[in-house]
Specification:
The protein has ten helices and nine strands. It is of the alpha+beta class and 266 residues long. Strands 2-1-3-4-9-5-6-7-8 form a nine-stranded mixed sheet. A hairpin with an 8-residue loop joins strand 7 (202-206) and strand 8 (215-218).
């Protein structure tokens, strides 16, 4: 638990003494001191008071070591962009910065994807990823690049490097837009998303390749979401004529199957 160090850090960042913070929290100064020194443990009512006062979710106050976050991440939390409050189990993003304290673009290559599925929130793991810069991207946003595999997103070819912008609030996911998604069981996937969070708490994932059927996933199975920005590939895209013809044949086959099913139900 990081509660004691987190509430002390947040209090000092606000420039508050223990007396001032205790008064605002309707606590005795000795009680607050006990929490900050781990002499006393807060009950659920006290945790709710701290969460409301700082605008940060209880999960974050207890589970996330705020001392390990960059200044930009702390600023995001203090401005109300706490992903736990947004209703997901996603941890606060772990990132790296360069010597000028500007965000790097970390590269998650094919060999690193398996490790990323478990190490995405581990500062030591993120620190060993290769980093680079794309000068045409905004310095005010957070980006990461993932190497994709497979043919489900053709015409974007297998092995391409897809760069995404970190999505803090998943309710802002836009329908029919492409995203890189870190999932609990399937690892890193690149799909076109359909936002059904308000409807049933799920995201529907679509492939560009019509041979792959869409499927739904509860947000509880999602760890990170990155909005597609661009991709880099060494391959020249193929002409689309064969793919278009294949898509037509698949649609015709589906119609035939549906017709057969209707006859069987008569």
């Amino acid at each position: 638990m990081f509660f004691k160090s987190n509430i002390k850090l947040l209090r000092k960042r606000r420039g508050r003494t223990q007396d001032e913070a205790a008064l605002a929290l309707s606590l005795k100064r000795s009680t607050l001191s006990g929490y900050e020194n781990a002499v006393a443990q807060p009950n659920i009512n006290a945790l709710m008071q701290f969460s409301e006062y700082y605008g940060i979710a209880i999960d974050t106050l207890v589970k996330v070591d705020l001392r390990s976050l960059s200044e930009s991440q702390l600023n995001q939390l203090e401005r109300g962009y706490d992903i736990y409050i947004k209703g997901s189990n996603l941890r606060v993003l772990t990132t790296t910065v360069d010597q000028d304290n500007e965000e790097n673009i970390e590269l998650v290559g094919e060999k690193a994807k398996a490790g990323y599925a478990t190490g995405y929130a581990d500062p030591d793991y993120i620190r060993i990823l290769p980093t680079f810069k794309l000068p045409f991207l905004s310095k005010q946003k957070k980006y990461r690049t993932f190497q994709i595999s497979g043919d489900s997103m053709l015409p974007i070819p297998d092995g391409s490097y897809v760069t995404g912008e970190f999505v803090q609030d998943w309710t802002t996911i836009r329908n029919q837009h492409a995203y890189v998604v870190l999932t609990k069981d399937d690892g890193v996937v690149f799909k076109v998303l359909e936002n059904k969070i308000n409807e049933n708490g799920k995201i529907k994932l679509h492939s560009l390749n019509p041979l792959y059927l869409p499927y739904e996933m509860p947000v509880s199975e999602i760890r990170e979401v990155w909005k597609f920005v661009n991709y880099i590939s060494a391959e020249v895209p193929e002409a689309n004529r064969e793919k278009d013809q294949l898509a037509k044949e698949v649609k015709q086959l589906k119609k035939q199957v549906e017709a057969i099913q209707m006859k069987l139900n008569l």
